[in-house]
Amino acid sequence: MTRRLRPLLPFLALLLVWQGGASLHLLPAFILPSPGAVLQALWTDRALLTSHGLVTLGEVALGFVTGALLGVGFAILMMLSPVARMNLRPLLNASQAVPVFVLAPILTLWFGYGMAPKVVMTILLVFFPIASGLLDGMLSTPQQSLDLARIAHASRLRELIWLRLPHALPHLAASIRIAVTYAPTGAVIGEWIGSSRGLGYLMLMANARSRIALMFAALLLIVAMTLILHRLADRLLQRVLSA
Amino acid sequence: MTHYGLSGTVSLEGERLIDPFVLSLRTGWTALLGPSGSGKSTLLRLLGGLQCEAGFEGSRNGAARVGWMAQSDLMQPRLSVLHNVMLVETLAGRNPDPARARDLLAAVGLAGYEPRRPGALSGGQRQRVALARTLMSEADLILLDEPFSALDPATRQTMQDLAHEQFAGRTVLLVTHDPAEALRLCDAIWLLKDRALHPVAALDGSKPHDLADPALAITATRLLDDIRGAV
Question: B91 CB near a chain A CB, below 8 Å?
């Protein structure tokens, strides 16, 4: 039991420092509210936080699933068609250098203030690591394994299903672990640019009304959501990979 | 009947690797001996139609179905032993028969291992699965790229005997760096050295040859000297 709780100690220490600093009024409460005040905001505003949290969670889920499916589909298309690979791979590599966040105002311009731009933002953040991770994994299948496909005169599709995809699974899993932590960031930044719902919107709204404890509570929820998603993905992937 | 074989020249990065040669295979076991880097594996890959760095000019008479065993057992870790046996057939899109795969596993001494994962098997057992996988495609031409060299001596002998028994009646080309292995198993032996194929006299008598025969040890030692270029 102590071993399992041991990693929590640094967080507890940090919390104590935070509470100590707040109690001594080192910083005014409108800059840094005490942990107690944040906890209280979490409780009293639970209905507000839940409704906005569910909006963000919806954007994250929709964006992640769509982005992951598109990424996997694109990687498979590029693996099956050398022509597609030749033309799309440089584009895919170059696109990694685009900080997707700077697209947020443009996405809002194109898709309005509803859910759509946040979902698109999340899709973009999830798509690229998954597409390139899976493609790199499939391309790194050892020649020795591919010899078997050659001996069998296997079609590209069969080679992909039986040799390349299984080899690329750990690469794909690593990409998914990264993408799942990007996803909430994408949704929240989309909400910052323009929205009337979601935790990102709630943070800005609370800030404007000087409800700093509520702002921290929303932030805490975003962090918790990301951690839980990462944990879930990790568990799921471990199960799939060890099967 | 057709003789599988390969003739022509092989070059690597613009330089001649093997001068004009003719390699013609008869039914039974043929060995291709040579020092590393001589190009013996390249010849084998060329005959099997596998990708390789070298350029080949000449003619090839390969089989429509080729059996392939390499030093690595090429097990797919996520597939069961049974599905590994059927893998080449699956890749070929031929709808493999699981009952036959089970029979072959039994023939290589692995009855009951069907549901296991390759990771749970020893190196020798994995190479037995590879043997069953090779038998599964009913190929007439079998290409072996040092399949026994990573095994411990006792397992290696057992595998040699088993492979010799199972591949009876087919055309087998064995690439090896071990003269004793070539002499023990093969009725025809080629030494690839100094960019050319040299015929080497095989031992008389049935194969696998008795390891206790002093002639085998003496001939193997002499061949080893040839490979090293000491004679």
Answer: yes
